[in-house]
Write a structure and sequence with these properties.
By secondary structure, the protein is mostly helical. Helices cover about 80% and strands about 0% of the residues.
């Protein structure tokens, strides 16, 4: 009995010493490992432990904010980015990440302000230009959006998402042929980008290329986009049924 007691005490002491020997940076690394394993709740726990040891560790706030964002805890994520920026107000990534959450929340003005701050600190930040462009696009300011998208491509000419959004703006304006050219560039850079096949497919159908357009919609479905079924039924299957009826 006494022997068992000492064994328990030894185990507890060992765990305590192991915990006490870990640095804040160790817990951050543990948390990042859990993120790679898709254990987001576990990662948040580790990042919180890191912050208990070092409340000024901005990378822990940012990492915890990222995990909260993935779990849909957007306001809490913003709070973590706020803490990081209070410690280091010149961190371009913290502004960019907080801006992305504002985008998800539909707070476009705040998002634009954050992306502008990112670009004030780091003028050659293609993702911030893309993000700000998307924020402008979401408010209907296509001119400002295109300006940011052009800047993003000057920095990174392989930015598939930028070509995609430029194509969407052109399609909204009814410039389907030009839009298709942008969608082609996007697919060239990112062949498994399902959403682009949807937009290109619809644009092709609008220009009378129904077979090619339906092939694009089918490709999007093959890539895992389940929402495209409605478009396939509307533009492709209904046409087949009409053709079959005319033949009879």
């Amino acid at each position: 009995m006494v022997k068992s007691y000492y064994i328990v005490v030894f185990i507890l002491a060992f765990h305590f010493l192991s915990f006490s020997q870990k640095t804040a940076e160790d817990f951050v690394q543990d948390g990042l490992t859990k993120v790679s394993e898709n254990n987001l709740k576990g990662s948040i726990s580790d990042f919180s432990k890191a912050l208990k040891i070092n409340p000024k560790l901005t990378e822990a706030y940012i990492a915890r904010g990222n995990s909260k964002r993935q779990l849909g805890k957007l306001q809490s994520a913003v709070s973590d980015y706020n803490h990081a920026l209070a410690i280091n107000p010149n961190d371009p990534e913290a502004y960019n990440l907080r801006g992305e959450v504002f985008l998800l929340l539909g707070h476009y003005k705040e998002a634009i302000n954050d992306f502008t701050m990112t670009l004030h600190i780091n003028k050659k930040h293609p993702v911030a230009h893309y993000n700000r462009g998307y924020a402008y696009q979401s408010t209907g300011d296509y001119k400002a959006a295109m300006k940011d998208y052009d800047k993003a491509l000057e920095i990174n000419s392989s930015f598939a998402e930028v070509y995609y959004e430029i194509g969407n703006i052109l399609a909204i304006k009814g410039k389907y042929t030009e839009a298709i050219q942008q969608f082609d560039k996007s697919i060239s850079e990112k062949p498994d980008f399902a959403k682009v096949y949807i937009s290109r497919g619809v644009a092709k159908i609008k220009t009378g290329e129904e077979t090619d357009g339906c092939n694009d919609l089918t490709k999007a479905k093959e890539l895992g986009d389940k929402g495209v079924d409605t478009l396939i039924q509307l533009f492709c299957e209904s046409k087949k049924q009409q053709s079959g009826g005319e033949e009879r």
